[in-house]
Amino acid sequence: MLFKVEMTINIPLDMPKATADKIKAEEKAYSQALQEQGKWRHIWRVAGSYANVSIFDVESNEELHNLLSGLPLYPYMEISVAPLCRHPSSIQSDDR
Ligand SMILES: O=C(O)CC1=CCC(=O)O1
Questions:
Q1: Domain Muconolactone isomerase spans what residues (predicted)?
Q2: What whole-number distance in Å separates Cα of residue 28 and Cα of residue 49?
């Protein structure tokens, strides 16, 4: 199941830089592990914003929820999720 996920990050201004840097490093490792597993298919920076648009490929809504709620930056994110399906004009032979 494919989902578009938009994440907007709002780190509190009073968070110490060392704390924020540690959480960001944990976030990067978490994200890259999921990318290596093929579950986090794409991640794109939204130009001009501390936000990303990502594509996830998971087995269920529950799996997506568990992955997203495990993000180290989750407490500081606004997240929106949209389920995806094949576009009838797509020339791709599969959903990759
Ligand atoms: O968009 C961001 O910077 C938040 C984020 C999600 C995965 C990651 O590595 O950073």
A1: 1-89
A2: 18
The structural domains of the chain, with segments of one domain joined by +, span: 2-53+68-84
Residue owning the nearest CA to atom 8 of ligand 1: 28
Please give the backbone phi and psi of residue 36, each rounded to the nearest 5 degrees, phi first.
Answer: -65, -30
pLDDT digits (tens, 9 = 90+) for 4-49: 999 999 999 999 999 999 999 999 999 999 999 999 999 999 999 9
User: Looking at the domain that runs over 2-53+68-84, which CATH code has it been given?
Assistant: 3.30.70.1060
pTM of the entire predicted model = 0.94
Between CA 26 and CA 72 the distance in angstroms is: 6
